[in-house]
Specification:
Layout: H1 2-26
Amino acid sequence: MGRRIWLAGLRVYLMVVPTRKRKELDR
C-alpha cells in the first residue's frame, strides 16, 4: 500500500522537476 503512494509521488516528482529547471533556465 505504501509503495503505491511512493511510486505515484516519484512519478509526479520526475515530471515536475524538469519543468522547474526549464523555468529557471528561461529566466
